[in-house]
Write a structure and sequence with these properties.
- This protein is mainly alpha-helical.
- It contains 7 helices and 2 strands, in the order E-E-H-H-H-H-H-H-H.
- Helix 2 crosses helix 4 and helix 4 packs across helix 6.
- It starts with 12 loop residues before the first strand and ends in a 15-residue tail after the last helix.
- The C terminus is likely disordered.
Length: about 150
């Protein structure tokens, strides 16, 4: 079991998880190089189709589309796991399975790639209040008082 009470090494985006808050940082450049194929698969998917196109597919085309979708999901989960383990090296595969779902996957993936819309933790501790309201229960994290310079 990971320990979310210890200070993290890398700034990132806060996510609620089993009554705790984990901070997902961006992956390192070295990890980005090692995961380049997975990142490309997730960020430049070929053959993305509308729901109507999917409904009109032959069984064989649908299988290919489904296999590609599953491969993207596996790659996305792998990238999220690498990012989480930068701050929580003991974050287990079982915990990762429990964390990544259709609600958290896209936001966690964006955090892993460093894309947060500028919503990183301000000082490594205090989340940006605008982002906290989007992804957590406002009672879980108490945002810092606004300085009025936003």
């Amino acid at each position: 079991m990971f320990d979310s009470t210890k200070p993290v090494d890398f700034r990132g985006v806060p996510f609620p998880f089993i009554g705790q808050t984990i901070i997902i940082p961006a992956i390192s450049y070295d990890d980005g190089e090692a995961l380049a194929a997975e990142i490309d698969l997730c960020t430049n998917p070929s053959g993305v189709r509308s729901a109507a196109d999917i409904m009109a597919m032959s069984a064989e085309d649908f299988k290919v589309h489904s296999d590609q979708t599953r491969a993207r999901r596996r790659s996305m989960k792998k990238i999220i796991g690498v990012a989480i383990r930068r701050n929580y090296p003991k974050f287990s595969d079982e915990e990762l399975k429990a964390f990544v779902d259709f609600d958290t996957a896209q936001d966690a993936f964006n955090a892993a790639l460093g894309y947060t819309g500028g919503e990183f933790l301000r000082d490594g501790v205090t989340p940006n209040p605008a982002y906290v309201k989007k992804i957590t229960d406002p009672g879980e994290l108490k945002p810092a008082a606004s300085s009025g310079s936003n």
